Amino acid sequence: MRSRYGLSDWDAAVSALCAADEVAIACHVNPDGDALGSLMAAYLGLRQLGKRTFASWGTTPAKIPYGYGFLHVEDALTDPAALPRTDTFLALDCGAADRLGELEGRASDSRCTINLDHHPGNDNFGALNLVVPTASSSAELVMRLLQDCGVEIDRAIAVCLWTGVVTDTGRFQYSNTSPETLTLAAELLGLGVPAPDLASEIWGSLPFAYLRLLGVVLGRARLVAGAGLVYSWVGLDDLEVTGTSLDEAEGLIDALRSTRDADIAVIFKQQDDGKFRVSLRSKGPRSVGAIARARGGGGHELAAGFTAEDVEETVEGIRRDLTR
Ligand code: AMP
Ligand code: MN
Ligand code: MN
């Protein structure tokens, strides 16, 4: 075993996991491919070592997002209120403890909280902090952590890890794709990951109704001249009219960012409570992380999010920030 990434807590985290009989694992609320893939990889890996493992995220009920059925998260998932109180608590892909939602208290209550993440500005909320902002994904870190714990990365675990890496790198197109990322991806492919099948599951299995929603959202997209900003929104009524659900709408932001007339894309997605989850993407170098943090959210410099009450008011604020 060797310390990785120059992290002083790495070896201690390996020792803590190896010594634990049971581990509760949680990822951030509204989990994306990296959160789900990291969660399931850690769940399967630690189980392979004979530990009792429990997986959750802090939303009740914990609804599994669209397109990730092949991860079989339902086999592992415990509702947050039922998550056993274990000494060792592994938090994955959370830039801050509040990203744990209903499980936020576990970060401070557990005897040993391991905070594994790749968000810049992570506030090191764990007792042990494995934070590597240069990593493509939390899945990349989970893979090395599991290997250092003696886990054999089998095909099922490789599928989970691949999911995290391909979703957080936008299929290896973003600047977080490093030579190490591709080396790791090559290892995963070598383990038999069916990459085309997974791509088709994640990005190519939306219902026809999604195309109608895409039409609505692109039809009302607006370009904010002078700010390099394109935005659109999805209201609850749009979901009802088109017969779609919000978790099918994750890819809308990618359609918006495909214009060369804007380097920043923003989509507003209305939640059941009426508020909007805002997703921001930048083609660089301008940071959307700063915009999200200033509004109580977070994320990476080129991919970030926050919650807002009103679309036009928020766009006006972002426009002001971008043009001053
Ligand atoms: P998304 O647009 O939901 O795909 O999120 C992009 C990035 O921003 C991910 O790294 C998320 O974890 C992060 N993010 C999204 N929403 C929030 C939020 N409300 N607070 C903190 N980070 C967020
Ligand atoms: Mn994530
Ligand atoms: Mn991530």
Features:
324 residues; alpha/beta; inorganic pyrophosphatase (n-terminal core); Diaminopimelate Epimerase, Chain A, domain 1; five-stranded parallel beta sheet; 11 strands; binds adenosine monophosphate; binds manganese (II) ion
The main pleated sheet reads as: 6 strands, mixed
- Binned, the helix content reads 25-40%
- Can you identify the CATH superfamily of the largest domain? inorganic pyrophosphatase (n-terminal core)
Bound molecules: adenosine monophosphate, manganese (II) ion
Q: What is the CATH C-level name of the largest domain?
A: Alpha Beta
Query: How many structural domains in the coordinates?
Result: 2
Strand-residue proportion: 15-25%
Distance between the termini: 50 Å
* Average pLDDT for all residues: 97
Strand order, largest beta sheet: 6-7-8-9-11-10
If you compute it from the alpha carbons, what radius of gyration comes out, rounded to the nearest whole angstrom? 19 Å
- Poorly predicted runs: none
Instruction: Assign the structural class, choosing from mainly alpha, mainly beta, alpha/beta, alpha+beta, or little secondary structure.
Output: alpha/beta
Order of helices and strands: HEHEEHEEHHHHHEEHHEEHEEH
CATH topology of the largest domain: inorganic pyrophosphatase (n-terminal core)
Number of helices: 12
Q: Based on Cα principal axes, name the global outline.
A: globular
The quaternary structure here is single chain
The CATH architecture term of the largest domain is Alpha-Beta Complex
